């Protein structure tokens, strides 16, 4: 029988124990990026899930949120917004600090990338503790956007990230839930 996109995606994810630090099982998506047909099908899967949210833009989180975020925006025929690590975007920028599963970081957004009330979908590769996505949502809302949804390729449910994404957005079905 033909495999589903979820099964093909799950088969391409490689677990790397103790990277980038002890106790973390890193989800390496290299084999997904190497497979253009799988990338196309992953994008179509998320686009289908997000289509009824009526979104007007996709915001991708640097850097792995850019990889499917951009084709997702193209599939939904909406603009793509870059949310980047500190120091990469020319001013003026809005900033948000947050805690990671490992470490701390600051992300930035150019406020003129967002129009008032714009309905945005936040996209990243992995939902872990939710700190990154929640910070991205807060940043977008500070710029005047409305976060209507979140999409992730993988959800690490045992880290409780979903509970941190309060706001009003819905989470689209991930390709892989652990
Ligand atoms: P968090 O803020 O804890 O939800 O972490 C999400 C961010 O860290 C995403 O941008 C992921 O790319 C990355 N990340 C966190 N945990 C993992 C993991 N186990 N495997 C791969 N990437 C991860």
Question: How would you sum up this structure in a few lines?
Answer:
The protein is an alpha/beta fold. It contains six helices and ten strands.
Task: Provide a descriptive summary of the structure in words.
There is one protein chain. This protein is α/β, with parallel strands linked by helices. Helices cover 31% and strands 30% of the residues. α1 (5-12) packs across α3. The chain is globular, with a radius of gyration of 16 Å. The model has no long low-confidence stretch (mean pLDDT 95). Adenosine monophosphate (AMP) is lined by residues 24-27, 61, 64, 100-101, 124-133, 161.
Secondary-structure element order, as H and E? HEEHHEHEEEEHEHEE
Helix content: 25-40%
Got a strand count? 10
End-to-end separation: 24 Å
| Integer average pLDDT | 95
Features:
single chain, eight-stranded mixed sheet, two-stranded antiparallel sheet, 10 strands, 30% strand, globular
Topology:
Blueprint: H1 5-12, E1 14-17, E2 25-28, H2 30-33, H3 36-50, E3 57-61, H4 64-76, E4 80-85, E5 94-99, E6 104-109, E7 119-127, H5 131-142, E8 146-155, H6 161-164, E9 170-171, E10 176-177
Parallel strand pairs: 3-4, 3-7, 7-8, 8-9, 8-10
Antiparallel strand pairs: 1-2, 4-6, 5-6
This protein binds adenosine monophosphate (AMP).
The site of adenosine monophosphate has 19 residues, from strand 2, strand 7 and helix 5.
């Amino acid at each position: 029988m033909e495999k589903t996109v979820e099964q093909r995606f799950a088969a391409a994810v490689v677990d790397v124990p103790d990277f980038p630090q002890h106790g973390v099982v890193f989800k390496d998506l290299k084999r997904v990026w190497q497979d253009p047909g799988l990338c196309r099908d992953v994008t179509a899967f998320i686009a289908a899930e997000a289509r009824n949210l009526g979104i007007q833009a996709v915001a991708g989180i640097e850097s792995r949120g850019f990889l499917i975020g951009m084709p997702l925006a193209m599939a939904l025929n909406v603009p793509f917004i870059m949310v980047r690590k500190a120091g990469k975007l020319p001013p003026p920028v809005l900033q948000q600090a947050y805690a990671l599963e490992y470490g701390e970081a600051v992300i930035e957004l150019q406020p003129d990338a967002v129009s008032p009330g714009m309905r945005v979908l936040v996209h990243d590769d992995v939902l872990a503790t939710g700190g990154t996505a929640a910070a991205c949502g807060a940043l977008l809302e500070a710029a005047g956007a409305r976060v209507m949804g979140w999409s992730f390729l993988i959800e690490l449910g045992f880290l409780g990230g979903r509970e941190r994404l309060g706001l009003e957005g819905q989470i689209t079905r991930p390709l892989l839930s652990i």
